[in-house]
Structures are given as structure tokens and as C-alpha cells.
């Protein structure tokens, strides 16, 4: 018997699970195909503030709270000669917090929530092929990972690709992922018990600490557990790995050379093997097409410096679900809804890409960097009171992306975003040419100039906004005005 689902979501990580939960809550028939059997390990433990309202919207927030994850109230950044302490309770509000999560448990909660909201969830379901007709995906063939011949096919009207870095649509079917990474970095990390945090750190703060040839993250998890990772340029990693002889020796020797990290771990015990992963940035030339949308890492991946991975996953999932719901109800056409999705997700990616680009040029100093952050959103007097630090916090908490999606009046002009992106690339090129010392992770290519990266037709999507009342979808400014009248 053939199977059919109005929407098939490939991938059950945070993006796929959230999109499925939101669609199911709107009464839409949705099926999730997840390759693994949860719980399964995943890196990326730090959540931005923006994740909290999305988890509320999807119905998962109460279960996340009940899981007892470490509360996160800000960040500490030691970058070059600058020290930044970002306390959300002081800059955002007294109750501002998110979590540092065990991703195996967190992702399991989100996928379970999708099922609880009414989505059909199939685990151990590896996608083998997507079938197209007239340029639109019409069916997905899958099988258990260990039994590739036991294939089943499910037809669909719409498809969401949430397959993470494997990017089923972009890499296997469309060939539209740009392989020339902006940041070609490699992360090596492990977990520790008994480590100390910096005394100035807010509760549960993520620590980002510059090093001679890269930077360290330190993420406090529940149970006195610390995620501790070192990120370096690919070439530095290869050379030092060869000299060290093993991944473990490379990691420990890098730790020994950093005074602060050495202090934090002086009485600690490493409790897991060292892991490594390439953090190469990439983007698809288009995040959407006829009857399909790419969410999370399936569409694009950004360097982990600002812990934006889960934010971009949940933000794109929410936008995708709203666009699909609005289209299926007939509130908007597919073309207009898809343009809104493309515009919203690309704006978020471009803004964060530009911030990371400037941050890696760390000789600029934090006041200059905060000034760059201010130019990536509307001036505070046009949104709410504040100063340069507030712009940086607003963007790196994910709040700017959410606010712009819900309120067109708060959106910085697209051409301003692109202009700042180009300036960041020029700055990076200039620093290399002049021999200014810094982290060797500067952008190798300005992706925003690549053919198809920014489709000018997407500007039509800027007149729409996300809405959650009376239901999740899209509306125009005129429609909102009628509702308020």
C-alpha cells in the first residue's frame, strides 16, 4: 500500500522536529523521517534567548524546563585584549535566560514533542532518494540504515529538508551547495568534570576565549560537566596534529598553551575521548524551490563562534512552518510565502556571517566591533532604547532575527546588510595583505556575491510578517491593521 503525507520532513533534529510540531499543531498532516534512533550524541549545546519563545510556540518548552538543563544567563568573551561580560539579566531583562543542553536528551525531547503534537515520527529511516515531477518533490524513498534493500516510499505535497550538514537536497539532488567555505576551521573537544569557570561569568555563561591560532569554547552543562573545545584553522590543525602525533595530544598541548584554559582545568578530570569535526561554512544558492524548503544546516552552516546553530535551526523551522501553513490554507500563494522564507533566513545568515567575520579580525577592538553590530540592525532609537553593546547582545541572542520576522518596521534594509557583509570581506582581505596579526580564520570568499546567493525577487517577501495569532502563518501590514481595528 502506498503512503502519503501532506508534508514530509527529512530529519528529526531541532529544525525538523520543530517544523513538524508547529505544522501538526496547525492540523496539517506531517511525517518525519529520522535516520538515527534517538537519543543520539550531537554537538552544539548552547541555546540563544530566541530559542525560548520558539520552544513555547512548538509546545516543547515545559518538557525542556523539566529536563533540568543548566540555566544560561549570558556569555563571557575574552578576545584579544578585550574582555566582555554579557549578562542577559542586565541587558535584556531580569528573567532573561535559556539553557546549556545535553543535545542527546534535548533533541529527543523535541522529537517526542513533534509526535505528541500529532506528527508521525519514523526513526531509523534513512532517505535513499527524493523523486521529482515537474521540478517538484513528490515522494521520498527510505529504508532502515542497516537494511538498505527494505525500501519504502511515501508521497507528499511538500517537503522540508532538515537533514543537517548531509543536506540531502542540496548535495544529492540539486547540486547547489557552495563548497568554497567562508571559514575553514576544525574543532576538537572533550568533556570535563570539576572544571572552574571565570569568576565574572553570569550563571551558566558560555565562555569564548581567543587563543594564539584559534579560540576555545567552554560550556557548563548540568552535573558539573563542562564541554571544552578548541577551534583552529584547517591548516593550523593539520600541521599541529601531524607534529603532535594524535588527536588527544593535539588537544591537550593546545590546552597547555592557554593560561586561562589551563587554570580552568587545573583540578578537573577529562571524562571522555577527544572528538573532532570540520566546521566548514557553506550555503546553498537557494534555500527553497517548488514545493520544498531547506531548514537549519541543510541550507547553510555558520562557524560556531556565536553558538548560532540551534537558533538558526529553530528560526528557519518556524518560518518554514508558517509559510507552509499559510500556503496550505490559501492565505498566501506559494511564491510569496517562499520569498518570505528565503528573505528571512538569508537575512539572518548574512547578519551573523558578517558579525563573525568582524569578530575574527579581533585587532579592531570591542567598541569598533559593537559599532559594526549596531549597523546590522535598525538604530536603537528606532526600535528601543540602548547603546552599542545592546545591539551586539540583541543580535547574538537571536532577538533581532525574530523581531524582524514579526515586524517589518524593525528591519534594517537588505542593501545595508549586504553592504556590511562586503565591508567585512574587504577588511579581512586588507588585514591579510598588510600582515596585521590575528586569527587565521578570515573569510576566504564573499558568498553574498556568488550567483544566486541573493535573489532580488525575494524583496517581494519583505512586505509579509510572521504571525501566531489567531494561528501560525503570514500576514501583511494591512491585515494586521485590520485585526487591530
Describe this structure in words.
The termini are far apart. The chain has helices at residues 14-25, 51-58, 61-66, 88-91, 103-116, 168-174, 234-244, 247-256, 259-264, 309-329, 334-360, 366-374, 380-383, 388-396, 399-406, 414-434, 477-484, and strands spanning 3-10, 30-33, 70-72, 74-79, 82-87, 98-100, 120-122, 126-133, 136-143, 152-161, 177-178, 184-193, 206-211, 214-221, 225-233, 269-270, 275-280, 282-284, 288-289, 292-294, 300-301, 464-467, 473-476. With 485 residues, it is α+β, with helices and mostly antiparallel strands. Helix 10 packs antiparallel against helix 11. It is 38% helix and 25% strand. The strands form 5 sheets. Strands 1, 2, 7, 8, 9, 10, 19 and 20 form an 8-stranded mixed sheet that branches. Strands 4, 5, 12, 13, 14, 15, 16 and 17 form an 8-stranded mixed sheet that branches. A 3-stranded antiparallel sheet has the order 11-18-21. It folds into 3 domains: 3-70 and 101-180 and 282-329, 3-Layer(bba) Sandwich (FAD/NAD(P)-binding domain), CATH 3.50.50; 184-280, 2-Layer Sandwich (D-Amino Acid Oxidase, Chain A, domain 2); 350-484, no CATH class. Belongs to the flavin-dependent halogenase family. Bacterial tryptophan halogenase subfamily. InterPro entries: FAD/NAD-bd_sf (IPR036188), Flavin-dep_Halogenase_NPB (IPR050816), Flavin_halogenase (IPR006905).
How is the topology of this model organized?
Layout: E1 3-10, H1 14-25, E2 30-33, H2 51-58, H3 61-66, E3 70-72, E4 74-79, E5 82-87, H4 88-91, E6 98-100, H5 103-116, E7 120-122, E8 126-133, E9 136-143, E10 152-161, H6 168-174, E11 177-178, E12 184-193, E13 206-211, E14 214-221, E15 225-233, H7 234-244, H8 247-256, H9 259-264, E16 269-270, E17 275-280, E18 282-284, E19 288-289, E20 292-294, E21 300-301, H10 309-329, H11 334-360, H12 366-374, H13 380-383, H14 388-396, H15 399-406, H16 414-434, E22 464-467, E23 473-476, H17 477-484
Parallel strand pairs: 1-2, 1-10, 2-7, 4-13, 10-20
Antiparallel strand pairs: 3-6, 4-5, 8-9, 9-10, 11-18, 12-15, 12-16, 12-17, 13-14, 14-15, 18-21, 19-20, 22-23
Helix pairs in contact: 1-2, 1-5, 1-10, 7-8, 10-11, 11-16, 12-14
Amino acid at each position: 500500500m502506498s503512503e502519503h503525507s501532506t508534508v514530509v520532513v527529512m530529519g528529526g533534529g531541532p529544525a525538523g522536529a520543530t517544523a513538524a510540531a508547529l505544522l501538526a499543531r496547525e492540523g496539517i498532516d506531517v511525517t518525519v523521517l529520522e535516520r538515527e534512533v534517538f537519543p543520539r550524541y550531537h554537538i552544539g549545546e548552547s541555546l540563544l534567548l530566541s530559542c525560548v519563545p520558539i520552544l513555547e510556540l512548538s509546545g516543547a518548552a515545559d518538557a525542556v524546563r523539566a529536563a533540568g538543563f543548566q540555566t544560561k544567563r549570558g556569555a563571557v568573551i575574552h578576545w584579544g585584549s578585550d574582555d566582555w561580560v554579557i549578562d542577559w539579566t542586565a541587558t535584556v531583562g531580569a528573567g532573561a535566560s535559556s539553557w546549556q543542553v545535553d543535545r542527546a536528551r534535548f533533541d529527543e525531547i523535541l522529537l517526542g514533542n513533534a509526535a505528541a503534537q500529532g506528527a508521525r515520527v519514523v526513526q531509523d529511516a534513512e532517505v535513499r532518494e527524493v523523486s521529482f515531477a515537474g521540478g517538484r518533490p513528490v515522494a521520498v524513498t527510505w529504508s532502515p540504515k542497516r537494511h538498505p534493500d527494505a525500501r519504502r516510499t511515501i508521497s507528499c505535497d511538500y517537503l522540508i529538508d532538515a537533514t543537517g550538514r548531509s543536506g540531502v537536497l542540496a548535495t544529492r539532488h540539486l547540486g547547489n551547495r557552495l563548497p568554497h567555505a567562508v571559514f575553514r576551521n576544525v574543532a576538537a573537544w572533550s568533556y570535563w568534570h570539576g572544571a572552574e569557570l571565570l569568576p565574572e561569568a553570569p550563571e551558566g555563561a558560555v565562555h569564548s576565549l581567543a587563543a594564539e591560532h584559534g579560540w576555545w569554547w567552554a560550556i557548563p552543562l548540568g552535573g558539573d560537566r563542562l564541554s571544552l573545545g578548541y577551534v583552529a584553522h584547517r591548516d593550523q590543525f593539520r600541521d599541529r596534529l601531524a607534529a603532535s602525533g594524535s588527536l588527544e595530544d593535539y588537544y591537550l598541548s593546545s590546552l597547555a598553551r592557554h593560561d586561562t584554559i589551563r587554570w580552568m582545568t587545573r583540578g578537573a578530570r577529562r571524562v571522555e575521548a577527544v572528538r573532532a569535526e570540520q566546521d566548514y561554512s557553506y550555503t546553498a544558492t537557494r534555500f527553497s524551490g517548488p514545493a520544498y524548503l531547506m531548514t537549519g544546516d541543510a541550507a547553510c552552516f555558520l562557524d560556531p563562534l556565536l553558538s548560532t546553530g540551534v537558533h538558526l535551526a529553530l528560526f528557519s523551522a518556524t518560518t518554514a512552518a508558517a509559510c507552509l501553513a499559510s500556503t496550505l490554507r490559501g492565505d498566501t500563494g506559494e511564491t510569496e510565502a517562499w520569498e518570505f522564507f528565503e528573505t528571512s533566513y538569508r537575512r539572518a545568515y548574512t547578519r551573523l556571517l558578517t558579525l563573525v567575520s568582524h569578530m575574527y579580525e579581533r585587532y579592531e577592538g570591542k567598541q569598533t566591533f559593537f559599532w559594526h553590530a549596531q549597523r546590522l540592525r535598525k538604530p536603537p532609537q528606532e526600535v528601543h532604547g540602548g547603546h552599542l553593546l545592546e545591539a551586539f547582545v540583541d543580535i547574538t541572542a537571536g532577538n533581532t532575527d525574530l523581531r524582524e520576522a514579526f515586524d517589518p518596521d524593525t528591519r534594517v534594509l537588505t542593501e545595508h546588510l549586504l553592504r556590511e557583509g562586503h565591508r567585512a570581506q574587504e577588511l579581512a582581505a586588507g588585514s591579510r595583505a598588510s600582515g596585521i596579526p590575528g586569527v587565521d580564520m578570515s573569510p576566504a570568499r564573499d558568498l553574498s556575491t556568488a550567483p544566486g546567493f541573493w535573489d532580488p525577487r525575494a524583496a517581494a517577501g519583505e512586505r509579509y510578517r510572521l504571525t501566531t495569532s489567531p494561528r501560525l502563518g503570514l500576514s501583511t501590514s494591512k491585515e494586521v491593521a485590520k485585526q487591530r481595528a
